[in-house]
Amino acid sequence: MDECHLMSADLEGYVWGTRGQRVEVPIVNERDRQTYYGALDLLSKRVLFGAYGAGNTANTIAYLRYLQVQFPQQRLLLLWDGASYHRAHEIRDFLARTNDGLPASQWPIHCIQFAPNDPTQNPIEDVWLQAKNSVRRLAGLKPSFKGVKFLFEQFLSLEVFDFPKMHMYGSFSQII
Q1: Using an 8 Å Cβ cutoff, are 37 and 49 in contact?
Q2: What CATH number does the domain containing 86 carry?
Q3: How many domains does the chain have?
Q4: What is the pLDDT of residues 1-53, one digit of tens each?
Q5: Which domain holds residue 59?
Q6: For residue 118, what is the DSSP state?
Q7: Does residue 175 sit within a domain?
Q8: Could you identify which of 77, 84, 104, 145 might form a hypothetical disulfide with 8, taking C-beta atoms 3.0 to 4.6 angstroms apart as the criterion?
Q9: Helix, strand or coil, per DSSP, at residue 35
Q10: How far apart are CA 1 and CA 86, in angstroms?
Q11: How far apart are CA 163 and CA 165, in angstroms?
Q12: Per-residue model confidence (pLDDT) at position 176
């Protein structure tokens, strides 16, 4: 599970420049930004994602509830990074209420934290990159930011993902 921030300037992912010299790309409107929460189901190889106003504790809890609705009566194993709002008291309280004194082997939601600042461990990072690159390939169309979001979401909805990082964590009966 992870968050992704899509910005209007994401279409300008590549530029030509002189080797060894830094090229600065101005961002025209930094306010055009959309945050997505996503989880990669390692069995179906599909992404469950949702658009939110920001990456924060309240939206993290909202997304966890969304996942519970998508997989009723199933236990969820979440692999996520160490974002500050993943470690917040509100998240711990939510998980304590959700897991309600059950032994760890029966928790409805079990979270495992990746090493901090290491996107190589999280398979969803590859999904975000593939989705952004697919949108960048369409930069010549000059879509509005609304169009960029639509293209990004379409890619996530229609694509089935399979890359080596997804197989790092073994087999589970159901994993999100």
Answers
A1: yes
A2: 3.30.420.10
A3: 1
A4: 999 999 876 665 556 677 888 877 665 655 789 999 999 988 888 999 999 99
A5: 2-12+23-167
A6: -
A7: no
A8: 145
A9: strand
A10: 10
A11: 6
A12: 47
